[in-house]
Design the sequence.
């Protein structure tokens, strides 16, 4: 084909990585790809360029599985959390999109296409007080970066929190205050007053005044 620009080895189309080119299937130019799932398959260049295929077929299978398995979880707290997670990351009309999807935070393919996979990886919520939390607030929703956490634990994991390094360890003010049995407010006041970290964390609490009758 005059002017045809062949697909080159190393190009990626969705889950497919091109590993061989330069041959034809039924007069059509084709390439061989390895899917992220490990399967190998040949596709015509036209299908790939048109965006009509982006996996060996495993993505479609996962979506069918998600549709079939979601019924058992639908309307459970875990399913509602999963649905909300996907929406705020991938639905530009979601009210939370500006804080997630617009910031570039996404849901991994495994979870996005299957509520069952999300449930299998995360397990049930430990209690009604637990919600989904990302360990790295700038990271994506994916295995290894998510946990069930209480509101208190999530508050300590906010991006706005300032960690304090002392004695070779880094913790937020709330954690240091709890460990040293100090008031978080008092510890914050000490630091704002210009105290060194060592002095702020090691100075004893003021003893309450005792009235002498």
Sequence:
């Amino acid at each position: 084909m005059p002017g045809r620009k062949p697909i080159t080895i190393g190009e990626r189309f969705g889950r497919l990585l091109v590993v061989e080119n330069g041959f034809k299937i039924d007069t059509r130019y084709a390439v061989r790809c390895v899917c992220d799932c490990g399967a190998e398959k040949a596709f015509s260049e036209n299908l790939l360029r048109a965006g009509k295929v982006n996996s060996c077929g495993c993505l479609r299978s996962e979506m069918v599985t998600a549709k079939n398995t979601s019924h058992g979880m639908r309307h459970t707290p875990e399913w509602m959390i999963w649905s909300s997670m996907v929406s705020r990351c991938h639905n530009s009309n979601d009210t939370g999109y500006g804080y997630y999807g617009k910031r570039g935070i996404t849901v991994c393919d495994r979870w996005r296409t299957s509520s069952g996979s999300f449930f299998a990886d995360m397990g049930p919520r430990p209690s009604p007080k637990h919600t989904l939390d990302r360990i790295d607030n700038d990271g994506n929703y994916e295995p290894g970066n998510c946990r069930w956490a209480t509101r208190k634990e999530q508050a300590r994991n906010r991006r706005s929190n300032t960690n304090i390094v002392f004695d070779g360890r880094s913790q937020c003010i709330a954690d240091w205050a709890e460990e040293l049995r100090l008031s978080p407010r008092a510890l914050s006041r000490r630091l704002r007053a210009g105290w060194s970290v060592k002095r702020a964390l090691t100075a004893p609490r003021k003893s309450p005044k005792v009235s002498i009758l």
User: Anything to note?
Assistant: DSSP finds nine helices and eight strands in the chain. Residues 163-202 form one domain. The beta strands are 12-13, 16-25, 28-35, 40-44, 130-134, 146-150, 163-166, 169-172. The chain has a mean pLDDT of 81.
